[in-house]
Amino acid sequence: MSSVNNRPLTPAELEAFGNELDALRARHVATLGDADARYIRKVEAAVRWIGVAGRVVLYVAAFSPLFAPVLLWPLGILGALLLGLSKILENMELAHNVMHGQYDWMGDPALQGKTYEWDIAGTSESWRKTHNFSHHTYTNVRGMDDDIGYGLLRIFPEQRWHPFFLFQPLIAIIFALYFQWGIAIQDLRLGRLFLGKATVGQLWKQSAPVRRKVTKQLLKDYVLFPALAGPFFLTVVLGNLVANGMRNVWTYVVIFCGHFTADAETFPRECVQDESRGHWYLRQLRGSSNLTGGKWMHILTGNLSHQIEHHFYPDVPANRYAAMAVEVRQICERYGQHYNTGSMARQFGQVVWRILRHSLPSKPAARPALVAEAAH
């Protein structure tokens, strides 16, 4: 149970809170320019060349039994790590942020949010629907944000308990290892089939874009690139498998740390009715968690270590979040609002506790009402 206390705001304070956060966004958007463009192009280049290096090292490892068998494992591990790093950077700092439209202002066709396609089993179009729209509009609103447990996990006591959730500690591990596949099928809402709300034929037709993307990804990572190694294909297959697994687990940990810590809250549908800008900011704040760390932590998380700032400003280039976070935290402190941040170990420990605790029956603890509601 969280011991967080958020000071009730008057209607005037609530409006001022929203206005200050809007003004902060406006100041940063007004100064976007060459430095931001250079940054994302450096990330794009890093993704490309680290990926090339990883694949080259994997091929050298694959053929090493012909000239230096002792190099097989060291080079195989190094190649997989480099390829995994490239995939993490592509997913987190490049694709995720580009697809939010953070760099549309550049006019670069390769960095347009509506057309970018990422290196993952799920389609970008599906992600823009489930994540950019549903999740960011209705963050942690029960029945409207499908990211609450992803239909597999009971992470908050407000979710109805079923005996199925007794298995969720194991399910959570499997979900982490295959996270990209969970994202790929999220918008299909497979639960409708078991509830009789959709037929197999309907889901098969709806899944056509996903099936095409999955086929492309499987052929690329487990057929085409391994085939280039000829009879030594197995090393390349394993390297790709490890790289994808690294990306899956890292993405899972970062996303779960950003939304499911002890202080994170969920909200009823009613809270979004006639929601003011200040009220929206408060809901984003109370449903989000940040991670402390240095420059590389921020880059490798796609700056989702600043999850609060990302939920406030999803279309502002993420390389701005570190600077914005200083002011966001000051604003929150002035208005008596808890700014949820901590180390990855601390935050993920709380996530694990939630997964274990709420696999068993549990009842919601009393939470302070959203400020806007309390202020009415």
UniProtKB/TrEMBL annotation:
<dbReference type="GO" id="GO:0016020">
    <property type="term" value="C:membrane"/>
</dbReference>
<dbReference type="Pfam" id="PF00487">
    <property type="entry name" value="FA_desaturase"/>
</dbReference>
<feature type="transmembrane region" description="Helical">
    <location>
        <begin position="164"/>
        <end position="185"/>
    </location>
</feature>
<feature type="domain" description="Fatty acid desaturase">
    <location>
        <begin position="73"/>
        <end position="341"/>
    </location>
</feature>
<feature type="transmembrane region" description="Helical">
    <location>
        <begin position="222"/>
        <end position="243"/>
    </location>
</feature>
<dbReference type="InterPro" id="IPR005804">
    <property type="entry name" value="FA_desaturase_dom"/>
</dbReference>
<feature type="transmembrane region" description="Helical">
    <location>
        <begin position="70"/>
        <end position="89"/>
    </location>
</feature>
<keyword id="KW-0472">Membrane</keyword>
<dbReference type="GO" id="GO:0006629">
    <property type="term" value="P:lipid metabolic process"/>
</dbReference>
<dbReference type="GO" id="GO:0016717">
    <property type="term" value="F:oxidoreductase activity, acting on paired donors, with oxidation of a pair of donors resulting in the reduction of molecular oxygen to two molecules of water"/>
</dbReference>
<feature type="transmembrane region" description="Helical">
    <location>
        <begin position="46"/>
        <end position="64"/>
    </location>
</feature>
<keyword id="KW-0812">Transmembrane</keyword>
<dbReference type="InterPro" id="IPR012171">
    <property type="entry name" value="Fatty_acid_desaturase"/>
</dbReference>
<protein>
    <submittedName>
        <fullName>Acyl-CoA desaturase</fullName>
    </submittedName>
</protein>
<keyword id="KW-1133">Transmembrane helix</keyword>
